[in-house]
Design brief:
Elements lengths: L7 E2 H8 L3 H10 L6 E2 L5 E3 L3 H13 L4 H12 L6 H33 L27
Antiparallel strand pairs: 1-3, 2-3
Length: 144
Amino acid sequence: MPQEQAGLRSGEVAEQAGVNIQTLRYYERRGLLADPVRTNGGHRLYPPDTVALLTVIKAAQRLGFTLDEVADLLDAGSRRHPTPDLRQRALDKIAEVDAKIADLTAIRATLTEVVDARCDSLTNCSCADCPFPFMTIGRSSPTR
């Protein structure tokens, strides 16, 4: 097989993985993807499994993992004796998600109170049961 046919070009990888070419280059710079071989004309050629790797990276991101965390997990998974790191990181991510859900639930409850109280201004609300402490905004001085 000639060198020109030995892999997938950037555009092919990007299209098959559902990402753009800049994402491929960014992931290369971050070390998430190995540097591709180059054709005599300078075109990048990626191994066919790059599409699957990109799919894994994007799935991990959708689960809330940062690119740094994904890089660590990929590194741990590439060792001959992987660590149980993924399980612990997933448990930690569940705790983060639970905390975000609690925060969003509290935000939603407060917004519902604002709607129910018919608040009409962020700084000078005239509703009787305003859920925000508008009277104290800007009046309290920080303690030192």
